[in-house]
UniProtKB/TrEMBL annotation:
EC number(s) from the headed UniProt entry: 3.4.13.21
GO molecular function: dipeptidase activity
Protein family per UniProt: Belongs to the peptidase S51 family.
Enzyme class: hydrolase
CDD domains in UniProt: GAT1_Peptidase_E
Keywords for this protein: Dipeptidase, Hydrolase, Protease, Serine protease
Protein name: Dipeptidase PepE
Amino acid sequence: MELLLLSNGKLSGESELLGYAKERIQAVLKSRAITSAVLVPYALIRSDYDERATALSQALGIEVTSIHHADNPADAIASAQCILISGGNTWMLNQLLHENSLIVPIQRAVRERNVPYIGWSAGCNVATPSIRTTNDMPVRNSVVLPSIGLFPVQINPHYIDAHVSGHMGETRDERIAEFCAVNPSESVIALREGSLLQVSGNDLSYFSAKDQGFKVFRHGQDIEEYQDTQALSGLVPFTCR
């Protein structure tokens, strides 16, 4: 299985989409001689699907086609060399994945055909068991919580531990702690901007363009920050690097 789960699509000041992760992404594409990818852009609400596909084609140097052009979306996934799932609104994305019957086809493509899955922000959220740790508003009245479940632990992308002056609501740490209190058997991995988790075969690794760590939240335990995935060895069925 090949997963690249990115906290976000761009760093501040970057013009190129996925620029901070480009070296790792292109290494995967080159190793598998991948020349095309299918983009699932359903998370985009105020952006154009085809414009996002064009931007990704230019950034990655491969042909990227948006799945909304497919007569049968499941068939498009079944024949895909690579799956790209864009950021945007996680609730919209997950709902449309279910409405277009894409959950099982994506699971089979990644697990059975070893098709690389590259998802950022919302695309990272839906790779976990559910979207309960998204930061996004539930913009659809009809919502679904279970998601693709390729990665076994909940992730909170775009994680920030700053407390904004004048903001009287809960901090991100407090919100995630609430999740763990309600779901004491579950953990949450908090990924800062410019960071990613990569599953390659049975190996799990971590990368941060800013040389920052990730945090792991567990109910009743101190919040700690880590620079490598050894801290996740008891949570995931991968060899942690």
